[in-house]
Amino acid sequence: LDLASGFYQVEMETSDGSIPKTAFNVENGHYEFLRMPMGLKNSPSTFQRVMDNVLKELQNTVCLVYLDDIIVFSASLQEHMVNLGKVFQKLRESNFKIQMDKSEFLKLETPYLGHIISGEGIKPNPDKIAAIQKYPIPKTTKEIKSFLGLLGYYRRFIPDLSKITKPMTSMLKKGVKIKLTPEYVQSFEHCKTLLTNDPILQYPDFSKEFILTTDASNIALGAVLSQGTIGADKPVAYASRTLNDSEINYSTIEKELLAIVWATKYFRPYLFGRKFKIVTDHKPLQWLVNIKEPNSRL
After folding, report:
1. In terms of domains, do 278 and 239 share one?
2. 86 and 149 part of one domain
3. Which InterPro entries does the record match to this protein (predicted)?
């Protein structure tokens, strides 16, 4: 659901002196906004707070709302009709109006915030993937940052992204001249193919146990959060990062343990206060609990 000119549906407060602050002059007179204007620094956060308050009884159980975009979800058609009615009633009570030509109803999947949402899970929007695939090879620092920013928006869909992009990110160091080396070009071309296999992530089920699988290489850490039976588990999200200069000098066991600690912190919103399994292919870590005198880092 898309609200019609959402910001303009919120009335300005008349008692706190806000209205005069929106004043502007044009040739035929002096005007002030009586509705919340677009472009003010606090308009987005204020509008989000208003929508959260309007739909607070339905948030996360019937719908999700981000600014003027509302997505209503249900397990069946019958339930969906009921849920739509609940959302419409809340919007009606607050006098919010929907823009019908930008709203979609009874869809099995729908684009939302750069993703495709469906009953199967969540995947990147093909239009955004096409933009990545058509991106020309970056030749300046600004272009590298722009490309990595575009790709980074979907980093949770891509295993070992930091490791793959290392030849590109190394060019961002101060004083490093950008050179189109074979490693750089290969990294860029690889990046453009990362999302072509239509990756899909399942929704987290907080009633079930999570599995955290970690790994470490000489230059990066990687992790995947998943659910299901080990070996047949389905990914919820991927994460990765490169090692800094001091971490590169760690021993193998220290790097593998660092991967576990970092990944646990990274996925803290999913794991905090819950029992979960850690999977690693580094068997020496199993004996860590038996080490009598580990070094200070371990």
Report:
1. yes
2. no
3. DNA/RNA_pol_sf (IPR043502), Rev_trsase/Diguanyl_cyclase (IPR043128), RT_dom (IPR000477), RT_RNaseH (IPR041373), Viral_Replic_Matur_Polypro (IPR051320)
